[in-house]
Design a protein that fits this description.
There is one protein chain. The chain is 47% helix and 19% strand. About 5% of the residues have low confidence.
């Protein structure tokens, strides 16, 4: 098997054995947005070389060698040893006891082949919704790493702001700054496309609609939050801020008069 060290300038250096899937399909980069630094069949060499290049070029250095992601890798949390393999993360407890174990380990993180993940209140909700019981024993359960890492990458802004209010120092007195910093770190403003952000906004709106029909409050919260994140980024891609948009809208509606008809506010002509 051949392994490649790839470089997304200004974003990251990583390793994969499938460039098309890992970098283009999963991470969304086109061929002209990344370069292959080295290739080798020696997983030991490529694993050590990745860390060296990450440090040399000033990127985040992975906490473990790439090769370890393909072997059984036990990660010690406070109360339990989780088993991280290429495909799954397995927890040493039945599903009905998992939430309590995870709540005791909020803030713990580990790497998967698909990317890093962290235990937060938001990610616990995702885990509990997607966890599966082991087919070999009821005393273990697991989640798929690719799905978990993809959800986490799309929603990791939540881990930055779920304990934050509008005067949080990390957010520079503005929660929208957290969102913009998160997006900027991922190259969204350098390489993002307003058209794809609009499509994502429509997808999130559809999720909110389905959640309303199901009367699922948690999903409504997640959906509205996701829409705000997308709108923040969409505004930034057009050289404006979400705060400006909100202020302009409020300036208009604050002077508007009308009345409620069949559950909808209808403005006066």
């Amino acid at each position: 098997m051949t392994y490649a060290i790839y470089h997304v300038p200004g974003v990251k250096i990583g390793v994969t054995n499938n460039i098309k899937y890992r970098v283009e399909e999963q991470q969304g980069y086109s061929e002209d947005e990344y370069e292959i630094l080295e290739m080798s069949d020696d997983i030991d060499y490529i694993s050590k070389r990745e860390l060296y290049l990450q440090e040399r070029h000033g990127y985040r250095v992975d906490r473990q060698l790439y090769k370890n992601l393909f072997n059984n890798n036990f990660v010690k949390l406070n109360n339990m040893d989780i088993n991280v393999t290429e495909m799954t993360t397995t927890f040493p407890c039945p599903v009905n006891k998992l939430k309590g174990q995870l709540m005791d380990n909020i803030g713990m993180d580990w790497d998967t082949e698909a990317g890093p993940v962290i235990i937060t209140e938001a990610s616990i909700k995702w885990i509990m919704k997607n966890v599966k019981s082991s087919q070999y024993t009821n005393g273990r359960c697991y989640v798929y790493n690719k799905a978990f890492a993809r959800w986490f990458d799309n929603n990791s802004i939540i881990t930055r702001v779920e304990d934050c209010d509008t005067t949080c120092d990390d957010c520079g007195d503005n929660i929208f700054n957290c969102i913009r910093e998160w997006a900027d770190e991922r190259g969204l403003y350098d390489k993002g496309d307003p058209k794809t952000q609009y499509i994502k906004l429509m997808e999130e709106a559809g999720e909110v609609g389905r959640a309303i029909l199901k009367e699922d409050t948690d999903e409504i919260i997640d959906g509205i939050g996701d829409m705000v994140v997308v709108l923040t980024n969409l505004a930034e891609l057009h050289g404006i801020t979400i705060e400006e948009c909100i202020q302009e809208a409020y300036n208009v509606i604050s002077r508007r008069t009308g009345k409620m008809i069949n559950g909808t506010f209808v403005k006066d002509n």
